[in-house]
Amino acid sequence: MSDEVSSRRSRITPEREAELHGAVLDLLREVGYEALTMDAVATRTRSSKATLYRQWGSKPELVARALRCTQPVPLAEIDTGSLRGDFGLMVQYSDDAQMAKDTALLRGLAHAVHESPELHKALRDLLVEPELNGMQLMLQRAVERGEVSPDCPALEFVPHVIVGAFIALPLIEDRPVDRAFLGEFIDAVVFPALGV
Amino acid sequence: MSDEVSSRRSRITPEREAELHGAVLDLLREVGYEALTMDAVATRTRSSKATLYRQWGSKPELVARALRCTQPVPLAEIDTGSLRGDFGLMVQYSDDAQMAKDTALLRGLAHAVHESPELHKALRDLLVEPELNGMQLMLQRAVERGEVSPDCPALEFVPHVIVGAFIALPLIEDRPVDRAFLGEFIDAVVFPALGV
Question: Which of A37, A117, B71, B112 has the fewest CB atoms within 10 Å, measured from its CB?
């Protein structure tokens, strides 16, 4: 997002923004990404299409921002002083109902991501990269504190292991990740692999 | 697959079967699952639709069997005497070009799996379950040989970690899993988590 767009967006209230994001997610669930139009978003939220384009730039960006607002807390904002604490808080902030809804939404988007490079880029820039960077910071602090060896070969694979769990569990066991699974998984796999 | 279908299928030669599976995969790549018809498969392979239905049962089953035949060796057939040896052979049998093609194919199928419970079931029964069972056997033997503690909490998550890596790497790094990644990933994450 450019600074210009950012300053434009700051003119609407957080409540109005949340309302708009909620409407986008509702429409996504109802009709899917391909059939979602800026017209429908404008009608549903009683705003003009010009406002939507001015404030969100494009449909892929609007969708990526709406998905981002379902996240309880960005990982980059978690800093408890220990890796166990950081991951523990990440698990604690996770909401079972929200994760189930997100899993269904993201599964519905898989095809659209494949078809639309713009959606792919928006999800990567606004959703995936910030969380990966947040996780990277957590791990870096753990290395600096001496909790994890800087040579630990598992360090670079932690994002793959955690992102993978979110996708593999629905595939293997036909159920979305919940807080209990996430906590057990991190205790059983991530900490031992990191030597924590 | 019922025994009856199995005995019927045994009447065609392995070469003819491989040719047919190859044609199904080509068509899948060309037109996608939804647009793939038994008519097109019959035309491409110069067989009758009746033969296809008699020998493969249905389009979802035919597609699942065709995908299965791209696997070099079923995991259940790998037994080297050690867990490191078993996973090592699994990595060694992996073919980079084939994994890249499979990743593209499976990504293309994601939408179809979501829409078709029959395809979902066929992929699960013919592709996913046999491999998960094969991995379960590998781990069970490792426990029996004393290589892994029977109480190791990572045991139940090994499939999630490995299946997850195959999906997370393309998402995070925009590239399919190759043999080098798979080997490093197993060394860095799976063995330490299992205490091997």
Answer: A117
